[in-house]
Amino acid sequence: MGVESTGGIQVRLAVEAAGACPVAASTGGDTIGRSATWSTAGEGEVVEEFDLVGDAEAADLPDEASVVFETDRSERVRFTREGGDCICEAVERLGAPVTDVSASRGTLRLSFHATDVETVRAAVDDLDAAFGSVRIDRLARTGDGEADDMVLVDRGRLTDRQQEVLETAMEMGYFERPRSANATEVAERLDIAPSTFAEHLASAQSKVLDSLLEGSA
Question: What is the CB-side half-sphere exposure of residue 51 using CA atoms within 13 A?
Fold first, then answer.
């Protein structure tokens, strides 16, 4: 007897989290973090590990961090932190286990699977409220890849300003890896404050998300 599919959604979010996540904070320049894992150590503490690829001496690691294993290409870093105040844990509190974590240039990327649109929206809203500057890197539904699964996004949902923000960010390479422009530079091009840019971008992403998920339902 087979297991019934819920028609789930594969999500990858990017959070500018250098000030909130030790893994993201450790990355800069060509240094990257990947394969992060964590476990409860008791008394509200969490032990976390990740692979640091690049110049470990230049990395901004937690004071209590230690290298528990190393190869020619990477070092396995372990540290202890307080539980609860974590980007990945915020997503997992919604009932969606994080499946992959990586970081570069202060940005954390985490992947998970959601069973419905509401979980995706809640994850974006919760992370934006707690950590700020959240964007959707990837979004795919079960069965994506066939011609019949193509989704049209209704651009009419966007205001002229929101569309301008998205187009300018795309043109300047804000969504590229690595980025060609940061939020401040895009905001300067648009002649708006960085906080206003973040607000317009969040609203535009929310509308695109609604249109995409409704169209693929």
Answer: 11
Positions in the chain short of pLDDT 50: 1, 146-152
Q: What is the pLDDT of residue 147?
A: 42
Query: Cβ neighbours of residue 208 under 8 Å, at least 6 residues apart?
Result: 153, 157, 158, 166
Tens digit of each residue's pLDDT (9 = 90 or more) over 100-145 = 999 988 889 999 999 887 898 899 889 988 887 788 877 777 665 5
E strand or H helix at 69: strand 66-70
Strand partners, 46: 40, 81
101/83 Cα distance (integer angstroms): 17
What are the start-end ranges of the H helices in the chain?
A: 22-25, 87-92, 117-130, 160-171, 183-190, 194-215
Q: Which domains does the chain have, with CATH numbers?
A: 7-143 (no CATH), 151-217 (1.10.10)
Name, in order, each residue with C-beta under 8 angstroms of 98's C-beta and a sequence gap of 6 or more. 88, 91, 92, 110, 111, 112
Res 83: pLDDT = 83
- The answer to whether residues 7 and 137 touch, using CB atoms and an 8 Å cutoff, is no
Asked if the bond preceding 178 is cis, omega within 30° of 0, the reply is yes
The answer to whether 79 and 61 are in contact (CB under 8 A) is yes
d(CA 127, CA 26): 20
Q: pTM surpassing 0.90?
A: no
